[in-house]
């Protein structure tokens, strides 16, 4: 995937090319070669699904690269919005090049990603272009909802699911469905792949929330407990707050107070666990992964691709 | 155009819908109805060109609305980038809703605009989608160049033209050419329309630069002489700095000093005029407008549409 991404972004206006290349991990801050690329999860999903519907890699390479560009266009803006200073262990693009140019670089990746699918003349061009534009719109919608919706114990879990379905699942669904659109598979296959992507996104995001609290920061690449620190109601916290136990009551009080020391965070993490929030989250993530695999099994992909995708789904959720 | 824009943006996620509606002038800060819309120049160009190639308004309405959304996606981000607090006499969207949500709202307008053209099933769909994505990419490229290129008396004017061709002309060209793509007109018509849009953008931008220095702020809607204040090398300044006269030498010294009082700005404006910068700019803007009209004349549009477009070109350049 990387060669197509490199080639396409290097043709951008020089400053935008440099920022995109940095953000994508191809170069360092001085523009020298680097290898800090992301996991390219979405393009890997797309290429395996392509194999599963009988397409050749070259039939889908442009779309897979475009999908990574779209995904990264949302990440580069997201880092500005959240004030995140690190991305994959390096300074975020806006810290290196300033927010103004990082905004334009994100816009440029978005426009380029859509241009690549629009310009590719293969079968299903219109349907694929439409799926990409729609998925991008959903990601933006989910990001906006995340910034504005006040998640609480009452309305929390339904809203949480909706945000994740937009912010995380939409591109995963699009990655899985694009090869099927190109191959012209029947509607029930498309539906199965969409459901697989939806559940995969939920499984991933919920497990990600668990890792934020109890994971190893050297594996997640993020400071531990940033969700609790920011009072971001992640899934285990929502589940804990919804429980009707003395521990969840104590958690609620601490949550609404403004303690941010490591001891405070540890105490809240312990209360989330004591209220059953961790257990519920781990169980739900597992259930969503099971559902994702069940839908994948209904998508009539080749045996080899199904096996590969099954392993990839697991790696995506468990970040291994 | 507005009904389509309203309908499309109102279907966005509620917060994004509210910000887009505010930015587009449909509502005020509280969400109450307002009428502070822009001039919708690009959609007007597209609708007249559509008439000129024999299309009906309904054949092009979706594209015209999409074009305005793309244009506005660049404006909402541009205001953040430039720190501009006013847009059409009202607080810029980022001042009202914060930069984070304004970034997402710009992204959402961009994605929506492209989605609308991608989803429209009429003739020339692929070519039109491609033209839109390409034009948007050029605008972003021009914006990035403007932030990073140091315009000076030597390399200035060629670089200036390039920036304007990308930042301003690209969407005007796209607006004029889209109906021709839908109607399937021959290549020489497309070429004539592209050239008309290119020169129109240059004529507009150069005259705009003149107005920034000597225009009436109640007409331009912007604080007078902001280009000089920010040491933004606008066309009259570039032309003046390139002249080899005592006045241009004095201008150069003041330009590189940091005087920003009204008296400083007045003195620099006078030196730009004395060095011939205003005269050159006005002449060049007129020449570009003449060229734009000449190319328009070669586009074989209907007589009525040509007449209307001629008048619109003039209004666009002279903001009347």
From TrEMBL, chains A, B:
<dbReference type="InterPro" id="IPR008949">
    <property type="entry name" value="Isoprenoid_synthase_dom_sf"/>
</dbReference>
<keyword id="KW-0479">Metal-binding</keyword>
<comment type="similarity">
    <text>Belongs to the FPP/GGPP synthase family.</text>
</comment>
<dbReference type="InterPro" id="IPR033749">
    <property type="entry name" value="Polyprenyl_synt_CS"/>
</dbReference>
<dbReference type="GO" id="GO:0008299">
    <property type="term" value="P:isoprenoid biosynthetic process"/>
</dbReference>
<keyword id="KW-0460">Magnesium</keyword>
<dbReference type="InterPro" id="IPR000092">
    <property type="entry name" value="Polyprenyl_synt"/>
</dbReference>
<dbReference type="Pfam" id="PF00348">
    <property type="entry name" value="polyprenyl_synt"/>
</dbReference>
<keyword id="KW-0808">Transferase</keyword>
<dbReference type="GO" id="GO:0004659">
    <property type="term" value="F:prenyltransferase activity"/>
</dbReference>
<dbReference type="GO" id="GO:0046872">
    <property type="term" value="F:metal ion binding"/>
</dbReference>
<protein>
    <submittedName>
        <fullName>Polyprenyl diphosphate synthase</fullName>
    </submittedName>
</protein>
């Amino acid at each position: 995937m990387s060669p197509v991404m490199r080639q396409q972004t290097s043709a951008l206006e020089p400053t935008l090319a440099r920022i995109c290349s940095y953000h994508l991990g191809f170069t360092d801050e001085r523009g020298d070669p680097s290898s800090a690329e992301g996991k390219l999860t979405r393009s890997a999903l797309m290429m395996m699904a392509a194999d599963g519907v009988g397409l050749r890699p070259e039939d889908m390479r442009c779309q897979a690269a475009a999908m990574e560009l779209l995904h990264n266009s949302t990440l580069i803006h997201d880092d500005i919005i959240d004030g995140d200073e690190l991305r994959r262990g390096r300074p975020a693009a806006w810290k290196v090049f300033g927010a103004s140019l990082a905004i334009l670089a994100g816009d440029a990746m978005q426009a380029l990603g859509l241009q690549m699918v629009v310009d590719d003349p293969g079968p299903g061009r219109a349907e694929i272009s439409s799926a990409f534009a729609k998925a991008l719109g959903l990601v933006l919608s989910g990001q906006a909802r995340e910034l504005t919706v006040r998640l609480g114990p009452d309305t929390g879990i339904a809203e949480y699911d909706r945000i994740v379905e937009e912010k995380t699942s939409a591109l995963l669904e699009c990655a899985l469905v694009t090869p099927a659109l190109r191959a012209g598979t029947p509607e029930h296959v498309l539906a199965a792949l969409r459901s697989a992507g939806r559940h995969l996104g939920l499984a991933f995001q919920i497990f990600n929330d668990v890792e934020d609290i109890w994971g190893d920061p050297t594996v997640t690449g993020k400071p531990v407990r940033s969700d609790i620190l920011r009072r971001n109601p992640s899934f285990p916290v929502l589940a804990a707050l919804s429980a009707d136990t003395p521990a969840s009551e104590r958690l609620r009080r601490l949550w609404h107070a403004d303690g941010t020391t490591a001891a405070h965070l540890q105490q809240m993490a312990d209360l989330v666990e004591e209220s059953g929030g961790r257990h519920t989250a781990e169980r739900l993530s597992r259930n969503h992964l099971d559902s994702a695999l069940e839908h994948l099994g209904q998508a009539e992909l080749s045996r080899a691709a199904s096996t590969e995708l099954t392993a990839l789904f697991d790696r995506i959720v468990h970040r291994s």
